[in-house]
Amino acid sequence: MPTSSPRRSDAKAIAALRKADPVMRLVIDEVGPLGDFFAGRPTDHYGTLVRSIVGQQLSTKAAAAIHARLLERFGGRAPTPEEVLAADPDELRTAAGLSHAKVRYLRSLAEHVLDGSLKLDRLPELPDEEVSAELTAVKGIGEWSAHMFLMFHLRRPDVLPVGDLGIRRAVQVRYGLPELPTPAELTNIAEPWRPHRTLACIYLWRSLQATPV
């Protein structure tokens, strides 16, 4: 994936996107170097999913603050599945500022890991569709969260989060659409981006920082 100085493989992916889609070429030229999209993220599967659940439907700033309080509650690290289930739900909610629903989701994740129905170590070996199916079996992890896990944790190169509002807004603006594209319309527009749809989406997200929407 891109950094401020793209590796050779990144440069090839950028070149392929520029050649495949004139709109994407303009976006790439306008956005310029991407920087590191992976800095500061958890490196373990379980910690990544905990952070994902905590941050759902929150601003980046609010999500970071609540995640930090959760880590502080457990000595500066993500709680283990055993610790989540052993903690009093109301105390955990109050200490970290979590909603009742998110405490339930964290407990569901912990239960799936401990009973073996979610085998985290297997996820890197599975194709994208199977990873999504494994993750969305956990209460509170939906398709969008599964897509983010694929893109930013497993770093899969060809993921298209069709439900992401930011991507849909960016495509609406950049492709001059009268309204937000449907998932089917977005999939069709993104077809030329294969097999680099993850990279294309990162450029589109970044383009929102410079474009009124």
Helix content: 55-70%
User: How would you classify the helix and strand content by structural class?
Assistant: mainly alpha
CATH topology of the largest domain: Endonuclease III, domain 1
CATH superfamily label of the largest domain: Hypothetical protein, domain 2
Mean pLDDT: 90
Count of DSSP E strands?
Answer: 0
Our measurement of the CA-to-CA distance between the termini, rounded to an integer number of angstroms, reads 26 Å
Q: Which sequence of SSEs, written as H and E, runs from N to C?
A: HHHHHHHHHHHH
Strand content: under 5%
Short summary:
With 213 residues, the chain is mainly alpha-helical. 59% of the residues lie in helices and 0% in strands.
Structure description:
The protein is built from 12 helices and no strands. Helix content is 59%, strand content 0%. The chain is elongated, with a radius of gyration of 18 Å. It has 213 residues and is mainly alpha-helical. The longest helix is centred in the middle third of the chain and has 15 residues, at 100-114. It has 2 domains: 8-38 and 159-207, Endonuclease Iii, domain 2 (Orthogonal Bundle); 45-153, Hypothetical protein, domain 2 (Endonuclease III, domain 1, Orthogonal Bundle), CATH 1.10.340.
